[in-house]
C-alpha cells in the first residue's frame, strides 16, 4: 500500500481508501452487516488504513458498523473520514435546501442539505458516538448548502478543530469558486469529488486549482458504482431498490462495454481484474490524493487493496487513454 499526505495537513492516508456508502445499505439494495464488518477489517489488515463514511450512509448504520469494525485496532493507525450536512430525521425543522427523497422500508424520506453552525456541531457529536471515538481525522461537508453562508459552516469546523474533535477539515462536491470562498475563512485540506474514467470533468478546473494551491482531492465513484467492473454486462440483474438501475442509463453502455473489452487483455497481462486496473489508473491521475473503493465482503476488500500492486507503464497509460477517447 502507498500512503499519501493529504493537502496541507499531516494526515497520511492510504491511496486506496475504504468507501463505506454501500455498507449502509440505503439505496444499494440492502447489506449483510457481518460481511460488511468483515470487509472493513480485511481492508485494514491489507493496508487500507483510511475509512470514509457519512451519517447519511444507512442513516447512521455505516458509521455504527465502522465503529464496531475498528475495535481492537490501534486508533492512531486508522484514519476516520466522515461528513455532515445531509439531514433526514426532521431535526432541521424545514430549514436548509431540499435535496431528494431517499427510499427506505418502502417509504420516501426527504433529505435536506443543511450546514448551519448548530447543525454541524450536533451532527459531529452524533457521529463521534456512532464511531465510538473522540475525534474524526477529516470532517467534510457532504454537499454545498445554498441556504447557509459558507463562512458559517467553515467557522463551525474551525471551532471543532480548536476543540480537538477533528484533525482536519475538508469539503465535498464543491466547485473551485466555493473552495476559494471557504478558504477565505478556513484553509480547508481537501475536496471530495466524483471522478472516474467516464467522468473526468474535474480535470478542467478542480485538478489545476488543487495542484496550484495544495488542496487534496479525494475521489469517489471511481468504478462508477460498479459499472466499470464489467459485471453489469455479464449479469445485469439489479434489485428494484438499487439506485443504479437508473444511474447507469446516463452512459452510452455499448461504448462502455467496448472500452472494457479493449482493456481486458491489459488487465489479464497484469494478473489483475478490471476493477483493480481501473482503481490503479485512478490513483495515478494528477492531483488525486486517495481513491475511495467500496466492498461488501472481505474478498472484495482484499482485491481493492491489492490494486496498488499493479505496475502501469507510460505505454499502458497511453493505451488506456487512447481507448477512453473512443467513448
TrEMBL record:
UniProt domain NADP-dependent oxidoreductase: residue ranges: 16-320
Entry-linked InterPro entries: AKR, AKR_Detox_Biosynth, NAD(P)_OxRdtase_dom_sf, NADP_OxRdtase_dom
Pfam families: Aldo_ket_red (PF00248)
Molecular function via GO: oxidoreductase activity
One GO cellular component, as annotated: cytosol
Domain of life of the organism encoding this protein: Bacteria
Entry coiled-coil feature ranges: 114-141
Keyword Oxidoreductase: yes
Key words of the record: Coiled coil, Oxidoreductase
Entry's EC annotation: 1.1.1.-
Protein name as it appears in the record: General stress protein 69
Lineage: Bacteria, Pseudomonadati, Bacteroidota, Flavobacteriia, Flavobacteriales
Gene it is expressed from: yhdN_1
